[in-house]
Design goal:
This protein has about 300 residues and is α+β, with helices and mostly antiparallel strands. The protein has 10 helices and 7 strands. Among the domains are: about 1-50; about 155-255, Roll (Chitinase A, domain 3). It has helices spanning about 1-15, 20-50, 75-100, 105, 110-130, 140-150, 175-180, 185-200, 215, 260-295, and strands at about 50-55, 55-60, 160-170, 200-205, 210, 235-240, 245-255.
Amino acid sequence: MKKFLKNLSIIIRKAKSSSSLYIFAALTIFLGGCRLFEKDEKQAVDAEKVAEVHGSILYKSDLKHLFTSDISEKDSIRIVNEFIDQWIRHQLLYQKALSNLTKEEKNKENELEEYYQSLIIYEYEKKIARQQLDTVISEEEKNDFYENNRSQFVLRKCILRSVFLKVINNAPDLNKVRKLIASNNDKDIDLLHQYCVGNAEVFNIDDTKWFYLDEVSNIIPLNADDCSSIAAGQTREINDSLYTYFIKVYEIKAKGAFAPFTFAQEQIESAIIYQRKIELLKKIREKVYEEGIRKKYFKVYEK
């Protein structure tokens, strides 16, 4: 359009030194060109439209966020169609609401302003926490927190500390596995780990790690609902038509017991960080308020 107007200005400048007929012709060309440009522009906009409800328009550009490189063409079509359908339903409901609410009921300026302010404050505090929050926690601090807040770490499900593995029935040297898993020798545990790396479909050889019983039951055929069916110090071998399963249980904690420190460690760290964040934001808010008083940023009028 800019190029068209530039060319037009040249024509009009030439027309000034010519007859009025020449000027009329120039204007005719300009108006015709504008109409053609507007028509092309409208066609381009219409081509970008995907759906329309009472004047609200969904454009192709609004769908870009739906596409990722790992989605197949078939799934992309399904996702787009579902999005369009939900958008239409939302717009229809919104328009119906608009037509059935009074002006006062539709006035949401105060709520929107409060929500906007809350979002801005949230983003600011998140930024402050990211910049200033100390996330380094000593072992002593974690232990102290655990001892002083044991009631926060009551187990909601049975857990066990165990080593286990799952191998196909025709896996080699199963007799060797039986001896190694029954052993308490560190060297034998290392040999078992080497075996598992080459032969086991799933395994855990870390005897310090705790698991929920139902997690282990998804790998080893155990009764996930009965913690009492498993005994500490027990080594079991279970077979089905395809696999052989081995499990050695070192320790069990029933539902309702206090979680061991090592099992609760991640939860402890999260709780400490959260506590620090609350304290940091409390200080920041108070600091902002004190600055407001000091610099006389606000006034309170008598009622």
